[in-house]
Amino acid sequence: MARVLHKEQSEIHVDYVNAPNQLARGSPSKNHTGKDRRKLYRLVGVSFGLLCILQIALNISLRLTLYIEGLSPSITDHYFKQGWVYFRPSFYYISSIKKSWQDSRDDCLRRGADLVIINSREEQDFTRKFHRISWIGLTLRETKGEWKWVDGTPLTKSYWGSGEPNDYEGKTEDCVEIKFHDEENSWNDIPCGDQNFWICEKTVAL
Question: Tell me: the pLDDT tens digits for 125-175?
């Protein structure tokens, strides 16, 4: 009986002694998780800090560019707050809703601007970056048979998509949109009453 009792006591003792060891084995896992969390928080903090620094650098760079080009901060801030984007030598407004070509132009005129006139390859590449099918200021409405910009100048350099302009399916397609954004030749003619986003352009005097 004494042996049995001693054995039971021993087993009880062993179980008692081993219990903290099992807890101890579990604690490194918790500590490890805590360290992982601290590393993650540190990484997020560092990333956020780098983004802030990058944003500040971009703002300084933009302001320096505008200063060199003679644009005052008060003018640029005014346009930026209204959603305009600057690309030398003009400001551009990209709509968030769709309208017909004429209604789109009327909106630009109310803003003291007009639908965008594309004068260079650089400007053509710039307008494609917005990845929105958008009206531009090119039309046949005023002079049938001759494409002209909204300021009355004739089209000299074009960026028509393949097979355009074509009056597709016999439709009267007298207005132009930027459609094929992945291609340099991105223009497409469509009916002026269709609904599209649009791009306004405003040149600010230095």
Answer: 999 998 899 999 999 987 778 999 999 999 999 999 999 999 888 899 999
For the record, the structure tokens of 69 come out as 């080009």
- Predicted TM-score (pTM) of the model is 0.63
68, 93, 111 - which closes a domain: 68
Contact, 180 vs 163, CB < 8 A? no
Q: Quote the CA–CA distance of 149 and 35 in Å, as a whole number.
A: 63
Lookup: tokens for 109? 């005129």
Compute the half-sphere exposure of residue 145: CA atoms within 13 Å on the CB side of its CA. 0
**How many Å is the Cα radius of gyration of the chain?**
33
CB 107 within 8 A of CB 99: yes
CATH code for the domain in which residue 188 is found: 3.10.100.10
Same domain, 105 and 33: no
- Domain region containing 33: 1-68
Phi, psi of 189 (to 5 degrees): -90, 135
**Residues 6 or more apart in contact with residue 86 via CB below 8 angstroms:** 62, 66, 71, 76, 79, 80, 92
Of the candidates 111, 62, 52, the one whose C-alpha atom is nearest the C-alpha of residue 86 is: 62
Q: What are phi and psi of 133, to 5 degrees?
A: -70, 115
Lowest model confidence (mean pLDDT) among 76-80, 126-130, 153-157, 178-182: 76-80
